[in-house]
Amino acid sequence: MAVPKRKTTKSRSGKRRSHLRTSHKNIIEDKKSGEYRLSHHIDLKTGFYKGRQVLDPKE
After folding, report:
1. How far are the Cα atoms of 22, 26, 56 from residue 37, in angstroms, in the given order?
2. Would you say 29 and 36 are in contact if contact means Cβ atoms under 8 Å apart?
3. What is the DSSP letter of 10?
4. What is the pLDDT of residues 6-47, one digit of tens each?
5. More reliable by pLDDT, 1 or 13
6. How far apart are the C-alpha atoms of 29 and 4, rounded to whole Å?
7. Distance between CA atoms of 35 and 27, rounded to whole angstroms?
8. Are 28 and 34 in contact (CB under 8 A)?
9. b/e burial code for range 10-49 (CB count within 10 A of at least 16 → b)
10. Structural domain boundaries of the chain?
11. Does residue 27 contact residue 38 with C-beta atoms inside 8 Å?
């Protein structure tokens, strides 16, 4: 079993884990309602997607 001979420093482990971070969500502000939502998703409150009415709005 491979065991490190010396303690791994914080900087070395940080370099190794540099790509292990959470990704940012693509949140945008809706132009009509002013509420935040994910881009490329239907606004469930109004039922609009790309400027068109797709669903009936939620009550």
Report:
1. 19, 8, 17
2. yes
3. H
4. 999 999 999 999 998 888 889 999 887 788 989 899 888 888
5. 13
6. 49
7. 10
8. no
9. eeeeeeeeeeeeeeeeeeeeeeeeeeebeeeeebeebebe
10. 25-59
11. yes
Whether 5 shows a pLDDT value over 70: the answer reads yes
Among all chains, which residue has been given the structure tokens 């490329």? 40
Q: List the structure tokens of 42.
A: 């239907």
Tell me, letter by letter, the H, E, C secondary structure of the chain.
CCCCCCCCCHHHHHHHCCCCCCCCCCEEECCCCCCEEECCCCCCCCCEECCEECCCCCC
| Pair of tokens at residue 35 | 């509420």
Give the C-alpha separation, 21 to 40, whole Å. Answer: 23
Strands (DSSP E) along 1-59, which ranges? 27-29, 36-38, 48-49, 52-53
